[in-house]
Write a structure and sequence with these properties.
With 305 residues, this protein is α/β, with parallel strands linked by helices. The protein has a single domain, classed as Alpha/Beta hydrolase fold, catalytic domain (Rossmann fold), CATH 3.40.50.1820. Helix content is 38%, strand content 19%. It is built from twelve helices and eleven strands. The strands form two sheets. The chain has an eight-stranded mixed sheet with strand order 1-2-4-3-5-6-10-11, sandwiched between helices. Strands 7-9-8 form a three-stranded antiparallel sheet. α7 packs across α8. The N and C termini lie far apart (41 Å). The N terminus is likely disordered.
């Protein structure tokens, strides 16, 4: 983190304004828990509970706070629910090490049932994006609209390998700032102030005084990521995409190394009535790299449904 960033000491709201996020009220999220699928899941709830609902699912190795700027922007009009998926954030870790997509679908179904959600907008990034379009394909009566963020049936191998290299690094460092510097090296597009504001919620301090990631250590074990996807899995995911019946927006960062432009283009063409938005100056973490551009793209889409 730069000396300039440290000296600013910006709050979430000041930082959001600096990067162009629009909001009329300084909403403060409520930290809540729900039991589902024999596990305890943490989530952040923003906005008035009487408003229509947006559910947000983060990407691999992230957590609910990765949506803070987006949630703040939409909390004026929506009840926003950002979920820590299993093994991430403040949700339970899987005792049996089961982090399969199939089990995560059962999690989502259980959470939706416990929170009594119906006809909501579903938004997901990366891992959360795949979980989102899979859930929407299998539960069409529940999802009013879908936003798939830099996720698809197929990933670019180079981008997946970059993520693998990042998560498999030494995971105990001396300070939060050391992790901030690591993230900057991985993704120099992001503002250091924003990185620190987000990453502090994804770290915990150990009894030794060192800091480490909150998410399950098993998920960053050597060789777990980057395995070649079987053709039948790819075919199944494409079938989910093609069967979507709700209004759907495919969002891609113009500099993403995870989802190819051709894949995103094919997705929106193969989704009945699908739309596509390419957010400039954004890599894989679209809403983190360009929050205001992401907000504009999603707002335009939602206004049209």
């Amino acid at each position: 983190m730069t000396k300039e960033a440290k000296s600013k000491g910006l709050s979430l709201y000041q930082a959001a304004r600096e990067v162009g996020v629009s909001f009329s009220r300084e909403w403060e999220p409520k930290s809540k828990f729900v039991k589902a699928n024999d596990m305890k899941f943490h989530y952040l709830e923003w906005g008035d509970t009487s408003n229509p609902v947006i559910v947000m699912l983060h990407g691999f190795a992230q957590q609910a706070h990765s949506w803070d700027f987006v949630a703040l922007a939409f909390a004026d009009r929506y009840r926003v629910i950002a979920i820590d998926q299993r093994g991430h954030g403040d949700s339970d870790w899987a005792k049996d090490g089961d982090y399969t997509p199939e089990t995560q679908q059962i999690d989502i179904q259980g959470i939706v049932e416990e929170l009594k959600l119906d006809e909501f907008i579903l938004m997901g990034l990366s891992m959360g994006g795949r979980n989102s379009f899979t859930y929407a394909a299998n539960n069409p009566e529940k999802v009013k609209a879908l936003i798939i963020v830099d996720a698809g049936p197929e990933n670019v191998r180079a981008g997946t390998q970059n993520i693998r290299n990042f998560v498999e690094q030494e995971d105990e460092l001396d300070s939060i700032d050391a992790f901030v510097e690591r993230v900057i090296k991985y993704n120099p597009r992001r503002d250091p102030i924003q990185i620190r504001g987000s990453i502090v919620n994804n770290l915990k301090q150990l009894p030794t005084g060192k800091w480490t990631w909150k998410y399950d250590k098993l998920l960053r074990s050597a060789g777990r990521m980057g395995r070649k996807q079987e053709p039948e899995v790819t075919d199944r995911l494409w079938k989910y995409v093609e069967s979507l019946s709700c209004p759907t927006l495919v969002v891609k960062g113009d500099r993403s190394d995870v989802i190819a432009a051709g894949t995103a283009d094919q997705m929106h063409k193969r989704i009945p009535g699908g739309k596509i938005a390419i957010v400039e100056n954004a890599g894989h973490l679209v809403m983190g790299d360009n929050p205001s551009g992401f907000e504009r793209a999603v707002t335009t889409f939602i206004q049209g449904i």
